[in-house]
Amino acid sequence: MGALDSVYSHVSHVHLKNYHYNHKDWYKNKPAPIFEGDVDNVRLLEELRKRNYSGFVSLD
User: Fold this and answer.
1) Strands 30-31 and 19-20, sheet pairing
2) Predicted TM-score of the model (pTM)
3) What is the 3-state secondary structure (H, E, C) of 10-54?
């Protein structure tokens, strides 16, 4: 999780959202349920648990 590696020491609140992204027409992105969009939020949460993350997590 390269991006997480670079910012993790500064993270105190994770706000989860998810979308089905349209990379050609960004205005056509469609909101998706937290665990059903293009972002693998299950993997992200597992990684936070491995790192003993103790901050906040909110779901939208």
Assistant:
1) antiparallel
2) 0.82
3) HCCEEEECCEECCCCCHHHCEECCCCCCCCCHHHHHHHHHHCCCC
Which tens digits make up the pLDDT trace of 13-54? 999 999 999 999 999 999 999 999 999 999 999 999 999 999
- Rounded to the nearest angstrom, the gap between the alpha carbon of residue 55 and the centroid of all alpha carbons in its chain is 14
Nearest to 48, CA basis, from 25, 19, 23, 16: 16
pLDDT at res. 2: 80
Q: In whole angstroms, what is the distance from residue 60 CA to residue 58 CA? A: 7
In the prediction, which pLDDT does 5 show? 92
* Contacts of 41 by beta carbon, 8 Å cutoff, 6+ apart: 16, 18, 34, 35
